[in-house]
Structure to design on (551 residues):
């Protein structure tokens, strides 16, 4: 227990946050008495919606296929080519990742609502299958480019040199490279299928207005419209969970095949300058991503906010809007801190000297990774059932919303911090412990200066995504305390586009200001500028060593 006790403790916390709520909700079709209130366990409708299932599978598959070519191209440009716009392309992909899907949809809705486009072909395309698939594809470019970069890195310099020697024809070398990238393409496809099937923002805005039912929104309707039907929501949830788990298994198999095809030890592939044709293609991709995912939606929001006061909206944000921003700031700030701390503690358990602690930490890592297969709507429904009883009566309180925020974004924090913790040499802590340095002192003098900037970046990423979080907020927010996402969706449903645009733009500015201040200022205030705090080579004569401090 001295070695793995903390990991077991955190394992119990994660079991309460993940295993107990999800098991109780997903087993509801077999155990209807587990419903939160009497009578809510009996299904009032058919078990599954064939239309929603067909739409979800079809649209997710189409988006998964469409995202492969631009994803592979973006990964190739960032990993294997040197050109001036690489930083801009990377920033555009990060912007798409952080842009809430419902705000992306709202921006394009404002564009097609213009007088010269209203009622034309553009409106029919957006409010149809083509528009939903296009927005899902744009939203999935960030994940696909990350997977593609890993695939291009796996095709190392040795493979390139061997293909040039043994395959003289250029088209055959290109065909060989594409065959080596097939496992990566499969991973991109599976990731996009899962992400598209779980995207609540596009389903709740564009899908609902286009009258195209999707499974993720059908689950929400079963939980929010009278009569409530938790059993039917649980049956629909099994579809998304099994689809996501199957995709995770397929991705693991494809990753293994990719590693086997690439060989063992690989040299890093060379970065060559772009030719004229490749440069034109690179800039075309970058400009297209910027326009489709950020520039056009944000400009549409700005134009709507400055020039439209329809439905009696004033140009100023009302008190409810400011209250929603304040609540989202508090909820997102606290939840991001908890998520990063739990991620650091779980990953830190992997660095323990005892094998038991590492095994438990690895099990917790796999558990939180499996939680990525659970959409926010399903997790919110599970929390309604699990924390609405006599023992853990948290439903309707801010504590439950913060707990759900933390649980849903803990896997993201772990994945972001996995590489920095893996690069920490275990000998740093062991040497300090041999010399009698306490755990608190080791954290302060060794681990914190090395990891604090990465911890701050992880906090900023989680904070931004939680600030505009929608599905969990819709299901779990306390009465009279609607967060920002709920307020924005309410304005979108009532067609108050001007008020929604103004509130969204102000909230974006506040969110970016808080995040930038935390990322830039906090590391300097806590760990200093670097060498002075760490006692680097320049201060070797004045900085005391660990042995001197121990003495």
């Amino acid at each position: 227990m001295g070695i793995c006790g903390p990991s077991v403790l955190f394992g119990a916390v994660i079991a309460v946050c993940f295993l107990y709520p999800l098991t109780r909700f997903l087993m509801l079709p077999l155990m209807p008495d587990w419903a939160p209130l009497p009578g809510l366990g009996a299904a009032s409708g058919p078990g599954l919606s064939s239309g929603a299932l067909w739409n979800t599978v079809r649209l997710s598959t189409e988006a998964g296929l469409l995202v492969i070519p631009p994803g592979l191209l973006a990964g190739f440009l960032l990993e294997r080519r040197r050109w001036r716009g690489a930083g801009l392309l990377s920033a555009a992909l990060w912007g798409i990742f952080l842009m809430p899907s419902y705000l992306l949809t709202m921006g394009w809705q404002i564009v097609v609502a213009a007088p010269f486009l209203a009622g034309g072909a553009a409106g029919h395309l957006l409010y149809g299958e083509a528009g939903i698939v296009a927005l899902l594809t744009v939203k999935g470019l960030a994940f696909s480019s990350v997977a593609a970069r890993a695939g291009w890195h796996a095709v190392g310099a040795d493979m390139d040199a061997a293909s040039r020697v043994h395959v003289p024809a250029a088209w055959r070398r290109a065909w060989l490279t594409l065959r080596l990238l097939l496992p990566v393409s499969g991973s991109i496809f599976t990731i996009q299928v899962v992400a598209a099937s779980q995207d609540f923002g596009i389903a709740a805005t564009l899908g609902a207005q286009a009258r195209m039912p999707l499974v993720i929104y059908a689950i929400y309707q079963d939980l929010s419209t009278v009569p409530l039907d938790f059993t039917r929501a649980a049956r629909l949830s099994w579809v998304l969970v099994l689809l996501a788990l199957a995709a995770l298994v397929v991705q693991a198999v494809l990753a293994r095949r990719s590693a086997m095809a690439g060989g063992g030890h690989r040299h890093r592939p060379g970065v060559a300058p772009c030719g004229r044709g490749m440069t034109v293609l690179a800039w075309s991709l970058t400009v297209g991503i910027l326009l489709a995912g950020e520039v056009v939606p944000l400009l549409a929001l700005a134009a709507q906010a400055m020039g439209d006061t329809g439905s009696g909206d004033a140009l100023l944000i009302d008190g409810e809007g400011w209250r929603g921003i304040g609540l989202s700031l508090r909820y997102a700030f606290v939840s991001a801190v908890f998520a990063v701390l739990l991620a650091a503690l779980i990953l830190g358990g992997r660095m323990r000297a005892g094998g038991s602690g590492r095994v438990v930490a690895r099990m917790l890592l796999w558990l939180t990774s499996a939680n990525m297969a659970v959409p926010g709507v399903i997790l919110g429904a599970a929390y309604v059932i699990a924390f609405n009883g006599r023992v853990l009566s948290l439903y309707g309180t801010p504590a439950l919303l913060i707990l759900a925020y933390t649980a849903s974004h803990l896997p993201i924090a772990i994945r972001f911090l996995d590489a920095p913790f893996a690069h920490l040499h275990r000998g740093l802590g062991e040497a300090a412990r041999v010399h009698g340095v306490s755990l608190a002192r080791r954290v302060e003098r060794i681990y914190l200066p090395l990891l604090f900037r990465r911890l701050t970046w992880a906090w900023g990423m989680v904070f931004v995504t939680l600030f505009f979080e929608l599905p969990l907020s819709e299901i779990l927010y306390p009465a009279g305390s609607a967060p920002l996402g709920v307020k924005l969706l309410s304005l979108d449903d009532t067609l108050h586009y001007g008020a929604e645009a103004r509130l969204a733009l102000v909230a974006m500015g506040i969110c970016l200001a808080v995040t930038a201040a935390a990322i830039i200022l906090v590391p300097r205030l806590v760990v200093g500028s670097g060498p002075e705090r760490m006692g680097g080579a320049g201060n070797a004569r004045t900085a005391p060593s660990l042995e001197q401090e121990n003495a």
